[in-house]
């Protein structure tokens, strides 16, 4: 294990982030320790970037912009294809870094190359249109142009995929980008930026500034030369980023988590539903914006389903990233405190603890932030455990009497990111899919599975804007109408 830790040092430049194609330390010289959440071992020091570092990165991105904008889209597409190949060739290193800093077990083949290929294939298909005119001597058309410098603030839970969701379409469309990764897990982003350079993407097109949210993050969100912003994280920080963007009148998209319902009807295919429900709240230790954290079950099925889920939860193997496990630790002590706090709060509110509920102890757990997969039954819709995003492996079971009540409970939080509906009745599935307020609804499945380019994003306070779809590249363009007067 320590071999893998020391090998991170050989893959990345200790204490440096990427500004304008150069690996540099923070201007103030300060650093942040990145730790392995399974052991608290320090993995690497990264710069504690601030206003000056962000300013340098935005300046570098601004300088790189005109040439990148004017690069043939076919060439940009080819560079992104090459980037996909480099990422594929280094998939093992990327995976190791992300597993170490996030503390997650292996997820199998990486989806990153396909994310890049998808955006690459759209780079040279950004088209405008011709417009009707009042006279044959006039010509009207639209051009789709990139914004300029894009700012991207990303969280720590799935740094690689989240970075790619912003980076790939943004640069495919001809923008340049400054990324501010989360202080808890910045290494994957640094390594992916290094690979972008290796693929031949010109210096300054991709920049990564590490640092704390209120310092580097706030400086990026309020920078006057950032022309478009993207934020993924908590609603509270999302509001602050929006405020900063409002001052500069900068458009943005925000993705802010959820309290996603798993709605199980009486006739649900339970054999399929149970493992998916377990996975959807234990995957990445529940630290996923789309985690299926609320189980809405028809009252007559509740006892049977909770029993089966409880058995399945107890079989989830928990441990450090290098073991054959399904679930690792939480990211940090702060996150552990938050999750245990919600667990205590749920008990105080009168929810019934069915399984889990504790911090794990013992030799392989003591230095990490391990919490058991947990189920609360008899949760009332108004309880905090049913309303707030825990971002941990905690499932709240809420029962309902009829479809009407199921919809009311499903829609009864401030969030609306994804939802799953489990039933064998196509009619009810369709009806519910229309009535549930969420940016994505899966019938007898889970979010984005098996569908290529399904737009992803929130309703209500889960945010706005859609990523991952065929329009994602267009989201990073603005429309210019061009009017040509050809009159003699
Ligand atoms: P956060 O929203 O504060 O952090 C996300 C990113 O924003 C990080 O890069 C952070 O450095 C940056 N940031 C923080 N304060 C900032 C500011 N004032 N200006 C600009 N950028 C700033 O999330 P945090 O504190 O790590 O986690 C708290 C809770 O947020 C979690 O328990 C979870 O419920 C939710 N969350 C949701 C995520 C999602 O995928 N939707 C991801 C991470 C957290
Ligand atoms: Mg925060």
Per-chain topology:
Elements: H1 2-11, E1 17-19, E2 22-24, E3 31-35, E4 42-47, H2 51-70, H3 73-89, H4 91-102, H5 112-123, E5 130-131, E6 138-146, E7 149-153, H6 159-172, E8 176-180, H7 187-198, E9 206-208, H8 213-221, E10 226-232, H9 235-248, E11 252-255, E12 261-264, H10 270-282, E13 294-298, H11 302-314, H12 333-348, E14 352-355, E15 374-377, H13 384-387, E16 394-400, H14 403-410, E17 418-422, H15 426-435, E18 440-443, E19 463-464, E20 477-485
Parallel strand pairs: 7-8, 7-10, 8-9, 10-11, 12-13, 12-17, 13-16, 15-16, 17-18
Antiparallel strand pairs: 1-2, 3-4, 5-6, 6-20, 11-19, 14-15
The structure holds 1,4-dihydronicotinamide adenine dinucleotide (NAI) and magnesium ion (MG).
The site of 1,4-dihydronicotinamide adenine dinucleotide has 26 residues, from helix 8 and helix 9.
Tell me about this structure.
- The structure is a single chain.
- With 488 residues, this protein is an alpha/beta fold.
- The chain has 2 domains: 2-255 and 466-481, Aldehyde Dehydrogenase, Chain A, domain 1 (3-Layer(aba) Sandwich), CATH 3.40.605.10; 261-447, Aldehyde Dehydrogenase, Chain A, domain 2.
- It contains 15 helices and 20 strands.
- The protein has helices spanning 2-11, 51-70, 73-89, 91-102, 112-123, 159-172, 187-198, 213-221, 235-248, 270-282, 302-314, 333-348, 384-387, 403-410, 426-435, and strands at 17-19, 22-24, 31-35, 42-47, 130-131, 138-146, 149-153, 176-180, 206-208, 226-232, 252-255, 261-264, 294-298, 352-355, 374-377, 394-400, 418-422, 440-443, 463-464, 477-485.
- The strands form 5 sheets. It has a 7-stranded mixed beta sheet with strand order 14-15-16-13-12-17-18, with helices on both faces. It has a 6-stranded mixed beta sheet with strand order 9-8-7-10-11-19, with helices on both faces. A 3-stranded antiparallel beta sheet has the order 5-6-20, with no helix packed on it.
- The chain is globular.
- The N and C termini lie far apart (77 Å).
- The model has no long low-confidence stretch (mean pLDDT 96).
- Bound molecules: 1,4-dihydronicotinamide adenine dinucleotide (NAI) and magnesium ion.
